[in-house]
Design goal:
It holds the Pfam family ChuX_HutX. The strands form 2 sheets. The chain has a 6-stranded antiparallel sheet with strand order 1-7-8-9-2-3, covered by helices on one side. A 3-stranded antiparallel sheet has the order 4-5-6, covered by helices on one side. With about 120 residues, the chain is α+β, with helices and mostly antiparallel strands. The chain has 2 helices and 9 strands; from the N terminus they run E-H-E-E-E-E-E-E-E-E-H.
């Protein structure tokens, strides 16, 4: 299931309230990973500007997000859930995964919110 890219800001604003997540950024054959609160953002000069207290910051050109996909699959023997932000060529720009606790278990409140979003956008 895919969500139109024009919903990206709405989703990012929601995710900023989830607590610890894992963000994966893919670029030029490199994979960058950030674990922590996804930062809140604001729109200025054509970008959604992230300003995190944890050091994770950036500037997202939300117009480049064509669609967001729900990823629900096994990874290394464990269930994982992510929102995958894709461009018009269906290339992954970045992913935001439901967080895990110190024992490696998924955070149930985030799993619940992820599934609520799936139901909302499926309707």
């Amino acid at each position: 299931m895919k969500i139109p890219g024009n919903k990206a800001q709405e989703l990012l604003e929601d995710i900023a309230n989830w607590g610890n997540t894992t963000t994966i950024i893919l670029h030029g054959g490199c994979v960058f990973e950030f674990k922590g609160h996804f930062p809140k953002g604001s729109v200025a000069q054509g970008f959604y500007n992230l300003k995190g207290e944890s050091g994770f910051e950036g500037h997202l050109n939300l117009e480049k997000v064509d669609h967001i996909a729900f990823q629900d699959k096994q990874h290394r023997g464990q269930q994982s859930y992510a929102l995958v932000f894709n461009d018009k060529d269906n290339d992954c720009m970045f992913k935001i995964f439901v967080g895990r606790n110190t024992e490696g278990q998924l955070l149930e409140n985030q799993v619940t919110r992820f599934k609520e979003l799936q139901r909302t956008y499926r309707a």
